């Protein structure tokens, strides 16, 4: 081999050695360069609590880790120092491998993207999302207050709620009463922010519960009272009542009405029955229904006749009548009977008197 060939071969070998050294140096630098060991896991935390986002790195050496708020481009922490002025923000680390961003007393405004950054050139970063869940809250604005409606009208009850995730609205009736739909079907609950009731009846009256839930405790509810107005209705179960002279009895009628009616007893002449004496009106009231009772003690001939049960409210008035008539007592002659005894045949009269009650002017065969 001549000298020129030897020099060419030597230059080629030297070039290969230099390239190999450079490549090895780049590979070594890449292996030992800072980086992330895994992605940042998204975090979901309830309002008012503490959230912790974790960023895991390797080969940090003299490089620094910083946390930033993406939407506002605000630097929160650099290395172990808190840059943010908020006392709610903090930073900790585990052997400078895992860096934790702490946000205490969470607010809804804390929801968003956060960046973990290594100050290499060019810088390296990755993102994690913080979601804030908020328990439901029923809003006064947009939610029905107590309602009063005329019977036969239609009404819509509304319920507005906030929260994250957005709450689901459920309607129920108090004391597990069924909700009666416009088609007459009865259900224990209905979903949705609006409860529509067509052709309201008194059976719809009562308390309704608007319940808001979104999986974040506590579930909340609001009580909405539905009042149904209607004119008086009177029910009399016995329109003819018989009584003997000197006996005691009670006549009664049932009234339903709202607003609360004025109810009383009157005689056929229109005279209102006063309280006291042998006639003592009594009233047993409920929310819609009242029972009007009139006890009559030691019936006299003046007590016979027609009694009117009268009920009035702002929507109308009505009345029902009961007729009290005389029942006469009749004595039946006791028949004779014969018994055979050791002393012969003995006749005797029935010792007890049988009583037959019959209306005056009516014929009843009591034999």
TrEMBL record:
InterPro entries noted in UniProt: Ig-like_dom (IPR007110), Ig-like_dom_sf (IPR036179), Ig-like_fold (IPR013783), Ig_sub (IPR003599), Ig_sub2 (IPR003598), Ig_V-set (IPR013106), Neural/epithelial_adhesion (IPR051170)
Location relative to the cell: Cell membrane
Keywords assigned by UniProt, alphabetized: Cell membrane, Disulfide bond, Glycoprotein, Immunoglobulin domain, Membrane, Repeat, Signal
SMART domains attached to this UniProt entry: IG (SM00409), IGc2 (SM00408)
PANTHER family for the chain: CTX-RELATED TYPE I TRANSMEMBRANE PROTEIN, DPR-INTERACTING PROTEIN ETA, ISOFORM B-RELATED
GO cellular component: neuron projection; plasma membrane
Short name of any one Pfam family annotated for the protein: Ig_3
Signal peptide region: 1-29
Membrane-crossing residue ranges in chain numbering: none
Organism, scientific name: Danaus plexippus plexippus
Domain of life: Eukaryota
Upper taxonomic lineage: Eukaryota, Metazoa, Ecdysozoa, Arthropoda, Hexapoda
Name of the protein in question: Lachesin
Domain Ig-like: 34-119, 136-221, 231-325
């Amino acid at each position: 081999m001549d000298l020129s060939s030897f020099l060419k071969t030597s230059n080629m070998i030297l070039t290969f050695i230099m390239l190999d050294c450079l490549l090895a140096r780049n590979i070594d630098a890449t292996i030992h360069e800072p980086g992330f060991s895994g992605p940042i896991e998204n975090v979901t935390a309830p309002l008012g609590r503490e959230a912790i986002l974790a960023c895991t790195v390797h080969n940090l050496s003299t490089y620094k880790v910083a946390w930033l708020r993406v939407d506002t481009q605000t630097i929160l922490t650099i290395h172990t120092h808190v840059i943010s002025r908020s006392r709610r923000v903090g930073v900790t680390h585990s052997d400078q491998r895992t860096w934790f961003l702490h946000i205490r007393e969470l607010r809804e405004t804390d929801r968003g993207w956060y960046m973990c950054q290594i100050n290499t050139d060019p810088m390296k970063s990755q993102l994690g999302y913080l979601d804030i869940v908020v328990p439901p809250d029923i809003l006064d604005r947009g939610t029905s207050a107590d309602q009063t409606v005329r019977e036969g009208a239609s009404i819509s009850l509304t319920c507005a709620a906030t929260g994250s995730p957005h709450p689901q609205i459920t309607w129920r009736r108090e004391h597990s009463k069924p909700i009666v739909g416009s088609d007459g079907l009865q259900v224990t609950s209905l979903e949705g922010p609006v409860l529509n009731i067509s052709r309201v009846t008194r059976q719809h009256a009562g308390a309704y519960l608007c319940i808001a839930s979104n999986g974040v405790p506590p579930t909340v509810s609001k009580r909405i009272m539905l009042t149904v107005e209607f004119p008086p209705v009177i029910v009399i179960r016995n329109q003819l009542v018989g009584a003997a002279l000197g006996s005691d009895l009670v006549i009664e009628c049932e009234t339903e009405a709202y607003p609360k009616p004025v109810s009383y007893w009157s005689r056929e002449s229109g005279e209102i029955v006063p309280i006291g004496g042998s006639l003592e009106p009594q009233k047993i009231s409920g929310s819609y229904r009242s029972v009007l009772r009139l006890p009559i003690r030691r019936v006299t001939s003046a007590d016979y006749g027609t009694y009117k049960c009268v009920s009035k409210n702002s929507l109308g008035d009505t009345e029902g009548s009961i007729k009290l008539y005389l029942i006469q007592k009749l004595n039946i002659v006791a028949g004779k009977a014969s018994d055979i005894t050791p002393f012969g045949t003995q006749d005797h009269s029935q010792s007890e008197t049988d009583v037959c009650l019959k209306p005056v002017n009516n014929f009843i065969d009591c034999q």
